[in-house]
Design brief:
The complex is a heterodimer of chains A (118) and B (828). Chain A has 118 residues and is α/β, with parallel strands linked by helices. Chain A has one domain (4-117): 3-Layer(aba) Sandwich (Rossmann fold). Chain A has helices at 12-24, 36-46, 62-70, 93-96, 110-117; strands at residues 4-8, 28-33, 50-54, 78-83, 101-104. With 828 residues, chain B is an alpha+beta fold.
Chain lengths: 118, 828
């Protein structure tokens, strides 16, 4: 079964490009969300394996959403944070928020997500 | 004494005389009636007449009545000649009473009363002996023992010659010392009397003394030999009768002396030297101690012949003063022995006679006094005084020789022209002539060179009969002193003016200084404050504010206690204090004032505190505005950064990320899906183009390159070319400083953006100009107006940007009448 992915980003062109890329790499993109509130709702509803979560959302901070998603041990998706900035731009909060990994947007690929799952 | 009294006494005397003659010549027991009658009448009338004379002369003196009483009581003895028992007995008992009255009169002479206790005792003994003593004798004496024809003693109790002898012995033992004491008193009084009084006293005391002495001897001798005693009693009667005659002789000698006074003074009145009159009066009045005191009207006092002041006796001592008057005016006073009071008529006569001479002498003394005073004044003058005649001849001079133009021996007799320079002499002689002719005081000044030294003289010329008195006073020293005084005065005046100017300057500075100045006591009570503080507080410096606590008048209520403590601390610790407080105006407005205290002392040395303050309300407001402006600029800058970051992130960055992912996806499909890869590459190319455009737009928003490269006008043209509005543009050819151009650009950019967004305008006019070194930018539209810089951050940010360059932005935007924004930015 292919790994299911929920893409959370407020830029539609980015979401479309990433979706095409992941589909090409064999992932199943089960849903997209453009803000934090709809992202949390989609996670409950779709239960994706991976939540590809943009750090900067119009309504919520991506780190806070990650923290929220990871509080429930068991059944929690693998949260992969992404941003057009570098990880070093955010500091230790990346490690403390519960997310499994931080992958810069320019480096996103199916291989990068699989590396996280491993 | 009234004439009636005298007539009564004489009438009584005549009656008694008649009675006595009847008794004597009808007496059965009188062997020598003629002799007795003659001696009795002689002595009785001698005393009666002498007494009346004395009485008339000194009515207030009892000596006259007493002397008269002696004469009248002599007649009592005539009763003894009676042939009847009772009158005979009464004559026996009281026949000697006249002797007691006689002694009384003598001891009262000349003053008329008994002066001492001794005198009084003697008189009392005399009365007692010659009444009570003879009455006692009458109880034991039987006349029949000596006189067979005598009537019986009506008072006889027991015929006892022994008792009679015993009583006589007692009477003699008491009477003789009393008589001798009387003699002693006469002697003492005579010694003490003045010469004129002695003349009056002497005959009286001689005859009376002889009478009393003979009486004493007779009393003693009678106890031994009745015949001898009897003879002596006759001698007593004779001397007794001579006493009033002697008294009259004494008075007559006084009257002769008075006549002598008148004669002498008349002679003196014709001319005598001062002092001779005194000696003449002293001689005439028999008082060598007599002094004359002349009345000096000018000083309202008495003076002697030498002009020395004389105090008149107060009347309590031995000296008395008798005033001498002439035509009702006091001329002089005669200061004489008290005894002269006994003969006031003598004194009056002397005073009256001497009045004319004394008046003359008084004038001489007054003249001498005046001369002495004038001389003293003249001597006290430091001036040169000359007596000169009309021709200018020196007649006399007074003054220091060294002040004279020539030696004194050459001066007297010389003329002014002989000793003085011609011009000075002319001036002097002309002055003398004028003074003599007109009687006016003539004054002048001249300078003489004495011993090579020029000396200044002031001269005054006054007429003295047909001559002139010239008073010359040197005033060279005075001139110098005057000049020095004037110099000092001028210096003082100048210094005073300087001080006044300085004071006015300080006052002006204090009043015009922007500083708020208030002078208070160490206790903080207001003494005064300056105009600036008046303007700030709206209170007038005056009685209403003075004396009130500084903090109560000027400080906001919540800070008063702190200010009071601060002033207290400054006073306790000294030094300056610096504070910031809210002061309050009369209308309740608060002003922020930075103030300090300086301890000082006022012009009287009193410790004071000077409170000087500066109104920093506006400065504070500007500081606050500046702070806010800076904060807003920082905030605007932060917002701009965030906007840029967001734009980059959301725009170009996302597009580049997507581009990166597309390229990677296309690369993966190149071989498997060349057609899909080519589509992706075309998408990527569009994405790249959009990313570039967004970056350009972004860069333009940060700072348009054309502004830096080609200036404000080009930048504004580019800006307007991109705006949909119709803009009427008026540009400047010259470049402005870069910050000014940037500010002007953003003002226009923001304004046009606002017009496009809100104004609903059909046209906009933008103009750039320079006026007086300022860049003036105006943007005016014909839109809806109602713009408010306080409401929007855009206009507020522009205000901050302009004010950061010390510029000013004004917005006029009345609703419905468009908006006009005017910016002025200094270009210097």
């Amino acid at each position: 079964m292919p790994v299911t992915v929920l893409i959370v980003d407020d830029h539609p062109s980015f979401r479309a490009t990433v979706k095409a890329l992941l589909l090409a790499d064999g992932f199943d993109v089960v849903g997209e969300a453009e803000d934090g509130r709809s992202a949390l709702e989609a996670v409950k509803r779709l239960k994706p394996d991976i939540v590809l979560l943009d750090v900067q959302l119009p309504d919520m901070d991506g780190f806070a959403i990650a923290n929220e998603l990871c509080r429930h041990n068991g059944g929690a998706p693998t949260v992969v944070l992404t941003s057009s900035h570098d990880e070093s731009d955010f500091g230790p909060i990346v490690a403390r928020c519960g997310a499994s990994a931080f992958v810069p947007k320019a480096e996103l690929s199916g291989a990068a997500l699989r590396a996280v799952l491993r | 004494m009234r004439r009636l009294t005298a007539a009564g006494v004489i009438g009584l005397g005549l009656l008694l005389t008649a009675g006595a003659l009847v008794l004597v010549f009808q007496s059965d027991h009188e062997e020598e009636p003629v002799l007795v009658a003659v001696t009795q009448l002689l002595s009785a009338w001698a005393f009666i007449l002498g007494g009346l004379f004395a009485w008339a002369r000194r009515p207030d003196n009892r000596f006259g009545p007493l002397l008269t009483a002696v004469g009248l009581t002599v007649f009592i003895g005539a009763l003894y000649e009676s042939n009847s028992s009772l009158p005979f007995t009464l004559g026996f008992v009281f026949g000697g009473l006249f002797i007691a009255v006689f002694i009384h009169a003598l001891l009262a002479f000349p003053r008329g009363y008994l002066e001492t206790r001794l005198v009084f005792a003697i008189v009392a003994i005399a009365y007692a002996a010659l009444t009570v003593g003879s009455l006692l004798t009458s109880f034991f004496y039987d006349p029949a023992d000596d006189c067979a024809e005598c009537p019986p003693n009506a008072f006889l109790l027991v015929d006892s010659p022994a008792a009679v002898s015993a009583i006589d012995a007692v009477l003699i033992a008491v009477g003789i010392p009393a008589l001798l004491a009387s003699l002693y008193i006469f002697h003492r009084r005579w010694r003490a009397a003045s010469a004129p009084l002695q003349r009056v006293l002497l005959p009286v005391y001689v005859t009376a003394g002889a009478t009393l002495l003979l009486l004493a001897i007779a009393l003693v001798v009678e106890s031994v030999s009745e015949d001898a005693g009897f003879a002596l009693f006759w001698a007593v009667r004779l001397t007794f009768a001579s006493v009033p005659i002697a008294f009259i002789i004494g008075l007559l000698s006084g009257r002769l002396a008075r006549e002598g006074v008148g004669q002498l003074v008349l002679e003196l009145g014709e001319g005598s030297a001062p002092g001779e009159l005194r000696e003449a009066l002293a001689r005439a009045l028999g008082d060598p101690s007599l002094r004359v005191a002349y009345w000096i009207p000018e000083t309202q006092s008495f003076a002697d012949a030498d002009g020395n002041p004389v105090e008149l006796p107060d009347g309590r001592g031995e000296e008395l003063a008798t005033m001498v008057e002439r035509d009702g005016q006091t001329v002089a006073a005669l200061i004489h022995h008290r005894s002269l009071e006994e003969d006031p008529t003598l004194l009056e006569a002397a005073a009256a006679a001497a009045a004319l001479a004394l008046e003359n002498e008084r004038r001489l003394v007054a003249l001498a006094n005046a001369q002495a005073r004038i001389q003293a004044l003249v001597d006290a003058f430091p001036d040169l005084i000359f007596r000169m005649n009309r021709e200018g001849e020196y007649l006399e001079y007074k003054g220091k020789e060294e002040d004279l133009a020539v030696p004194p021996e050459q001066l007297i007799g010389a003329r002014a022209h002989d000793v003085l320079p011609r011009d000075v002499a002319d001036q002097l002689v002309a002055g003398i002539e004028r003074a003599i002719d007109t009687g006016e005081l003539v004054t002048g000044e001249y300078t003489l060179e004495l011993d090579g030294v020029p000396r200044d003289f002031e001269v005054r010329i006054v007429k003295a009969r047909d001559e002139a008195v010239v008073i010359a006073r040197e005033f060279t020293e005075r001139n110098r002193a005057q000049a020095e005084l004037e110099r000092l005065h001028a210096e003082l005046v100048q210094r005073h003016r300087d001080l006044e100017h300085e004071r006015d300057f300080i006052r002006t500075v204090v009043d015009s200084a922007p500083s708020l100045l208030c002078l208070v006591t160490p206790g903080g009570f207001i003494l005064r404050f300056n105009t600036s503080l008046e303007r700030l507080s709206g209170r007038r410096d005056g009685d209403i504010t003075r004396g009130h606590a500084f903090w109560d008048v000027f400080i906001a209520p919540e800070e008063r206690e702190a200010v009071r403590r601060a002033l207290e601390q400054v006073v306790e610790e000294g030094g300056r204090g610096e504070y910031e407080s809210n002061w309050i105006t009369v209308s309740g407005e608060r002003r922020q004032v930075a103030w300090s205290t300086t301890p000082l002392r006022d012009d009287k040395g009193q410790p004071r505190l000077l409170i000087s303050g500066t109104d920093i309300t506006e400065r504070k407001r500007h500081e606050d505005e500046l702070r806010s402006s800076r904060a807003r600029l920082v905030e605007a800058s932060d917002i701009e950064r965030r906007r840029l970051e967001r734009n980059l992130h959301d725009g170009a960055q996302q597009r580049l990320v997507s581009l990166s992912l597309m390229l990677r996806l296309a690369h993966a499909r190149v071989e498997s899906d060349p057609e899909g890869a080519a589509k992706l590459l075309a998408q990527a190319s569009d994405e790249l183009g959009q990313a570039l455009e967004e970056l350009r737009e972004l860069a333009r928003g940060i700072h348009p390159a054309v502004l830096s490269d080609r200036g404000l006008s080009a930048a504004l043209e580019a800006l307007i070319s991109r705006t949909p509005l119709t803009v009427d543009l008026e540009l400047l050819d010259d470049r402005l400083p870069e910050p000014v151009e940037a500010a002007a650009y953003y003002v226009v950019s923001e304004a046009l953006a606002n017009v496009a967004k809100y104004a609903e305008a059909s046209s906009v006019a933008v103009s750039i100009a320079t006026v007086n070194g300022h860049a003036v930018v105006e943007i005016a539209d014909d839109g809806v107006g109602g713009a408010d810089p306080a409401k929007g951050s855009g206009l507020r940010g522009l205000v901050d940007r302009v004010e950061a360059l010390d510029g000013r932005l004004q917005v006029e935007s009345p609703p419905g009448r468009g908006t006009r924004i005017r910016v002025e930015i200094p270009c210097g």
